[in-house]
Amino acid sequence: MFETRALSGALAAVREAHAPDALVLDTERDFETLDPAVAEELGLLVDGLDPVSFPDEWLPTDVPEQLAQYAGSDFTVGLPGDGGVTWTRQTEPPTVFVKPRLRTSPDPFVDFLLAEALVEVGLDLPESFLPFFGERYSELAAAVPLDPAGVYQLAAALYTAYCGLHTRAVFADWAGTHPDLFDAWVDAGERLEPRLGDLSTEVARGQTEFPAAAELACSAIKHAADDRIEIPTPFAALESSAYAQAGPEYAVEWARKTFEKLED
Q1: Residues 51-62 pLDDT 10s
Q2: Would you kindly state where each structural domain of the chain is located, as residue ranges?
Q3: Which InterPro entries does the record associate with it (predicted)?
Q4: pTM value?
């Protein structure tokens, strides 16, 4: 199920600089929840396993099944929609997983995702949007007129933006030291940019649902260092040092005020 992934060149340097103890594994299949036999196999490769669960009061009454499972006692790494690279501190040392869904992806893009994960581990960022929001996840759900799936998508987007505010400066500094990783980071942002110009209008006209727009804009925030990309209203308010510092409290208040304006 798991095989150690060899890192060379820039990725080895990134791991050494940001997460020197991290283990990077290729996986035979895509997964979120690990059954006991697979968890036991993983346990042979790490020094320890410590699956986490989260308090019931963090979640509203009605949440997507995947989120309830993630919050429960099952050993779960990542959530649907997290992509082909996930990481966890439920192992000792932390582990980064590269899933087979990326086998047909260009190598520079996979390298960028791996570098991003290693930087996130090194920055001690929350592992997902649920521990990021904590008890404020219920506050977010109460603050917005969205169904449970919409709240899930919005929360994931807001978490992406928060992480991006912390990681993008690292990537911006790699123009000279790790040019291939830098170029892959820039390229990913440039692919998003054409979709941002009309996003505010699309939301206002109901052509794009708000959670989907948030997902796109918040992904762009990861690549918008040095005014590289212009983030559209109302998502531009998330591209701020205040959000980087205040985190979930800022996110919930932003969501509340944003929807109040949309409803006016």
Answers
A1: 999 999 999 989
A2: 2-263
A3: DUF7089
A4: 0.96
